[in-house]
Amino acid sequence: MSQESLSPAYLTRLAQEFGTPLYAYDAAKIKQQYDKLTTAFNNSNTLFFYACKALTNINILRYIRDLGANVDCSSVNEVKLALHAGFPPERILYTSNGIGFDEIEEAQSLGVIINIDSLSNLEKFGRKFGASHPVGVRLRPGIMAGGNLKISTGHDKSKFGIPVDQIEKVLSLVEKYQLEIADLHIHTGSEIVDPDVFVKGIEILFDLIPRFNHLKFIDLGGGFKVPYKDGDSETDIQLLAQKVTKAFESHPNPGGRPLQVWFEPGKFLVSESGYFITKVNVIKTTDAATFVSVDSGFNHLIRPMFYDAYHRIDNISNPNGQPRRYSVVGNICETDTFAWDRTINEVREGDYLVFYNAGAYGFEMSSNFNSRYKPAEVLVKDGQAHLIRRRDRFEDLLRNQIEL
Fold first, then answer.
1. Is 345 within the bounds of a domain?
2. Interatomic CA distance for residues 202 and 208, integer angstroms
């Protein structure tokens, strides 16, 4: 099974102490995942940037910083959170995506590493900054990869990056403004199992590397697959490290300088650390199904409805109960099905159900839909549970409203 770090009894105690719905994160699992990466790539010139869009709680950022990882940001506000968490600017990567140039200007003023994903913004950057600030270019490699079309970002219909067939236009801007291109970046999607997808991306970049004179880094993005259920496949990190290392050994940089390789793991670091605990409100039996209604909905965990994502669900209040078939649904005024016809130990009203693999894009994509409160968050570290975000209160719903 994909996740067993915190026991059902311990999760039950957390639910009783902090209330539900509740997000709980296991720091030890985050460290285990980071150690898996650094061990596999131990003998290579590789850096890891945590793709913090997965989970931006400031305490998670600080913990990952202390592990030694860098941070990858998708917005200037994520950059500011990373700075607030203590990351120095040189350990912060900002990859823009379809944003106004004023945001890139702000990121530049903060001194962080910048990747640009459009010809338009690359020209604006060159016009204003020239060679004064090294910059990276995000390319779209034309590779279809990932577990779902919604999370595939490298194919020819994706909005992300500058298509590789427009490389002459990139080079024209480099020459026109004497731009110093420090890195080339590609990201093909999420939930990539096959390491050869990354190697294919490298091979595309090898044709381009000789055309950039100031390259220092090659950014291969992230998208490592984590298991969600029994027998689920996952990215073989050890094999990935071997194949990437071999690829770069076979294609040394013509400029003579060894290129450092960057990866941007997000879900890989935090997904399996997370547990989402809910309480059963109502059991409703119909001819079609037995519905278990919990005290949450897609306002707190949208992945099952948005991506058809699977999350293993256990009844931690009745671990020895007779297995039965249930459809687990939420309590908001909208269709918010977490699981159809799922086998779960007998469920009773008042029981606690836990959703596994809830550390990535769980709380981060939550909302106050139906004017319901966002959950609390807890970090379990060194055997101690720490409240790292309190549950919303009524005043939080009114905080930014202006009464006329």
1. yes
2. 10
Closest by CA to 265, choosing from 2, 5, 52, is: 52
Q: Mind giving me the DSSP string for 199-217?
A: HHHHHHHHTTGGG-TT--E
Place of tokens 């910083």: 65
Q: Model pTM?
A: 0.92
Of 396, 302, 375, 392, nearest in space to 24 by CA = 375
Co-location of 139 and 106 in the same domain? yes
What angle is formed at CA 291 by the lines to CA 286 and CA 295, rounded to 5 degrees?
A: 145
The residue whose two tokens read 């001819």 is 287
Tokens of 193: 């199992």
Q: Quick one: the chain helix, strand, coil %, rounded to 5? A: 35, 25, 40
To the query of whether residue 52 is one of the catalytic residues in this protein, the response is no
**pLDDT single digits (tens) 263-305:** 999 999 999 999 999 999 999 999 999 999 999 999 999 999 9
Same-domain status, 343 and 221: no
Residue pLDDT, tens place only, 67-84: 999 999 999 999 999 999
Together in a domain, 160 and 220: yes
Catalytic residue among 132, 157, 320, 333: 333
